[in-house]
């Protein structure tokens, strides 16, 4: 049997941009993606700590070192600039492997940069 399990998480990043008139997705600083071992176009769950919104979208690489966290497309209506969000990705793992699974957890600073 396989189960969905947390693969990686970027915890408490600040929304720096919201672009309503865009195809859709979330743009994330490439440094954060590397640290979390997340890939461009990977499906993610985004949880807004300010308003409780939860949504699924996919990742677009943002400029390395920029600290950008930009919600694009209709999801831009679910955030305000400065909101704090958690970005999570998941993996399908065999139940036996899941028992010893350790997700990758990334805790950036207030400027969305690695500490």
Q: What's the quick description here?
A:
The protein is mainly beta and 115 residues long. The chain has helices at residues 30-36, 95-98; strands spanning 2-14, 17-19, 25-29, 43-48, 54-62, 69-72, 84-94, 104-106.
Task: Give me some keywords for this one.
115 residues; mainly beta; eight-stranded mixed sheet; 8 strands
Q: What's the N-to-C terminus distance?
A: 38 Å
What is the number of domains?
1
Main sheet specs: 8 strands, mixed
Strand order of the largest sheet: 2-6-3-5-4-7-1-8
Q: Uncertain regions: pLDDT < 50 for 5+ in a row?
A: none
How would you describe this protein?
The chain has 115 residues and is mainly beta. It has one domain: Barwin-like endoglucanases, CATH 2.40.40.20. Helices cover 10% and strands 47% of the residues. The protein contains two helices and eight strands; from the N terminus they run E-E-E-H-E-E-E-E-H-E. An eight-stranded mixed β-sheet has the order 2-6-3-5-4-7-1-8. The longest helix has 7 residues. It is globular. The N and C termini lie far apart (38 Å). The mean pLDDT is 97.
């Amino acid at each position: 049997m396989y189960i969905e399990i947390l693969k990686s998480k970027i915890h408490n990043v600040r929304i720096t941009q919201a672009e309503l008139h865009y195809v859709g997705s979330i743009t994330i600083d490439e440094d954060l993606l590397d640290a979390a071992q997340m890939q461009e176009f990977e499906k993610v769950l985004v949880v807004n700590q300010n308003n409780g919104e939860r949504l699924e979208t996919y990742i677009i690489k943002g400029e390395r070192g920029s600290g950008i966290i930009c919600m694009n497309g209709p999801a831009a209506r679910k955030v305000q600039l400065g909101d704090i969000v958690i970005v999570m990705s998941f993996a399908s793992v065999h139940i036996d492997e899941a028992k010893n699974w350790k997700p990758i957890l990334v805790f950036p600073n207030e400027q969305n940069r690695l500490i």
